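tl;dr need the bound structure. longer version: we got a ligand (flavin-adenine dinucleotide) that a collaborator sent over and nobodys looked at where it sits. i said id run it. heres the input, straight from their email, havent touched it
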Amino acid sequence: MKVVLHVWRQQRRSTKQDFVQDGRMVRYELDHVSPDMSFLEMLDVLNEQLIRKGEDPVAFDHDCREGICGSCGVVIDGVPHGPERGTTACQLHMRSFRDGAEIWVEPWRAAAFPVVRDLVVDRSAFDRVVQAGAFVSVNTGAPQDANAIPVPKAAADRAFDAATCIGCGACVAACKNASAMLFVGAKVSHFLHLPQGRVERERRARNLVAAMDAEGFGNCTNQNECEAVCPKEIPVRVIAELNREFVRARLIEEPVGKKRVGGDG
Amino acid sequence: MKLDAKIPAGPVQEKWDARKFELKLVNPANKRKYKVLVVGSGLAGAAAAASLAELGYQVECFCFQDSPRRAHSIAAQGGINAAKNYRNDGDSIWRLFYDTVKGGDFRAREANVYRLAQLSVDIIDQAVAQGVPFAREYGGLLDNRSFGGAQVSRTFYARGQTGQQLLLGAYAALSRQIGLGAVKMFPRTEMLDVVLVDGHAKGIVVRDLVGGEIRSHAGDAVVLATGGYGNVFYLSTNAKGCNVTATWRAYKRGAGFANPCYTQIHPTCIPVSGDHQSKLTLMSESLRNDGRVWVPKQAGDKRRAQDIPEAERDYFLERKYPSFGNLAPRDIASRAAKQVCDEGRGIGETGLGVYLDFRDSIARLGKEAIAARYGNLFHMYAKITAEDPYSQPMRIFPAVHYTMGGLWVDYDLQSTIPGLFVLGEANFSDHGANRLGASALMQGLADGYFVIPYTIGGYLAGQRAGAIKTDHPQFAATAGEVDELTRRLLSIQGKRTVDDFHKALGKIMWQHCGMARNERGLQQALRDIPALREEFWRDVRVPGSGAELNQSLEKAGRVADFLEFGELMCRDALERRESCGGHFREEWQDEGEARRDDENFCHAAVWEYTGPGRAPARHVEPLAFENVHLAVRSYK
Ligand SMILES: Cc1cc2nc3c(=O)[nH]c(=O)nc-3n(C[C@H](O)[C@H](O)[C@H](O)COP(=O)(O)OP(=O)(O)OC[C@H]3O[C@@H](n4cnc5c(N)ncnc54)[C@H](O)[C@@H]3O)c2cc1C
Ligand code: FES
């Protein structure tokens, strides 16, 4: 099959302080595309052609190509990860497009994710949110036997459903407010349903929300676009859980002294 | 090259306790004066970095992905072994030890394997305490499944995403330390060399992949946890970025490389669909708990699977290995699949495939039960092939998956370079010539959480903290060499792309050093690889500059190393004149079963770099089997 691509090319690196978007869409034609190729394999073919012609290949993040590492992520025809539900760009196949299709490919666009180059963005804001408290504060050592605390299967399954998040950032890219509530909600929900995670629930909710705000992510206005594009189909109930946890944390115990972002345990 | 494995004396059950007691300790107040550089943030690296920081050491951690959470460990699917015996089915530390030594075809070091089995139980406890959501039963306790090469159910899992959940656990622990300022994390940073001062590893040279700067980092010890080298074959189940660069460059600085020819070909992967293929996708071994492997009895039978009557199907694993059936170990199952394909009984368009059929289990357990166990794998299969595995059998074929070889390490996980420790898939230690399913996650975490925190202290206690800084001339010298290599790659400006060369190398490796090897083929590869390498350095085109994000340059450096490493692999395969585990030499077989030569090859082969263009030297570490007696490995 044949496709026509319009790809965002941006050479100059953007940062949070110097947020430039001085790239442009460049048109490419590809003639020998197999429907069995993944979307990224199609980009590989484009890049091989560009290199042979002496041009710079399109930079894009990828690693596992199995939909689990969360590296890949581009906006395809206006939709993060493209047209298939529950599918990352690396798992999307060209059979999802018609012969002769024109396809627009762009990076995530959000103030918290500056473009590094072409389709590559800086998602380190997610890491910093996690560092603020998305963990159980236990050291490596000799914890009790794994079966000492039974966890109801339903609770373990709920925790798992949230923990399955791959941190790709599609939720942010899909949201008109560039909100990270689905990502942060998934973290909160994962720990909320497990007894091991409940010990620090108030502190976690407070610190994660503070970190999320500090990174410049927007607020949730219930558009549910995030759920629609999430390749792991994380449900928006995690946002409700996050809101509840945050309100609860504020009611139960006001933070003493200065609020610290950066995890103090 | 001196190879002292430093195996503690005494009965195998007591060796680890004895070693822990012997090791010198670093006083808690002094720990913060020592800096440890951890390269890699997979299970081994993240676990090590977090645990060392918790102890009080200053830690710097490096990975080439944009976040430590994306290390290749994230992709592990099926599960992790532990000798918990929660099933009451006869498991024990001793049995896990025994299964692993036997599974490795008696080519691993007993003392290390025993320690691994001992530590396996702690890993599960640690992971649960971190909030890893393992699969549970209705009673609230942890569930288990079976994996190949074992007759007990000891594999813990989190649907088909066990690696993801375990890595997120280690990443959370690491993130906590980063938040506390105890670990400094350097993502999108690639290590390109180790810096040796007076023979000790005292730092690394890295390239910042965003801005392109070459930088030096000094430390009191260096830990490599950089994963396996399966991508030397180009096509493998590994993530695209997996490489041999860190361990290869350490080898060129004097670290011994052990058993490079030991590679694991996994029996159940989705077959290749065309030339555009950039990687292969694993279908977890756990599927063999409920799926049955078969091909038609008649060669050339091109009927659709559902049209082939029961009597005309050959369930060849069940037939050949009745006591293990579909759960025969990987090397054996892969070889059996290759054999039926060689007989012309392979399925699919290319004839390079066998069926993995869930019809009977769906009839027995219902579609829901199967979906609950393997939903995400079935989904992934359907995405890639556009076929529905609930209604027709999966098509699968063996693919490169894991590398048992790696840098040689002693019992303390220290390489032949003092101060350079190697963990996880990057070392050679625990799996011998074949790794059993669900034991790589176990090894990575055992090394990172429970071994290195003790053994590194033994080394550091004898070192003056912070004695070496990056102003030592050795740093500038090493960085200069790295810079020069980068410049050379960029200056060639030839006609062929890096991927082109990588694919060509992969073809040579798969053809001559893949599932079956022989003298003639290996000799051929040893001529073809240097020729290809020479062409690479003459005709590769790497666009762009070194002062920017340049993914072609990253790949070029990795492929340049693979082009050297592939040769060592073939040499090792040539010199090991026996068949064992994943290393199958056609000359040494009994009707398709591997024939070991314990008299001459009951050892680890350790290669020493002797300089550019010179043949490397082969050394051996003899292996003694005092607890599990050398025997022909049978799964019949
Ligand atoms: C598809 C798949 C499924 C698997 N399933 C299972 C399973 O079910 N059970 C099981 O036990 N095992 C499984 N394995 C094997 C297992 O996942 C790996 O062996 C294991 O995760 C390796 O962990 P590691 O920490 O050693 O290395 P990795 O996870 O590979 O991490 C390597 C790290 O090193 C970094 N790195 C590498 N080179 C450099 C460099 N030059 N500079 C800086 N950083 C560098 C990377 O960025 C990364 O952080 C599977 C493997 C695959 C491919
Ligand atoms: S490349 Fe890993 S999720 Fe797409």
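gonna send this back to them w/ a short note. Chain A has two domains: 3-117, 124-251.
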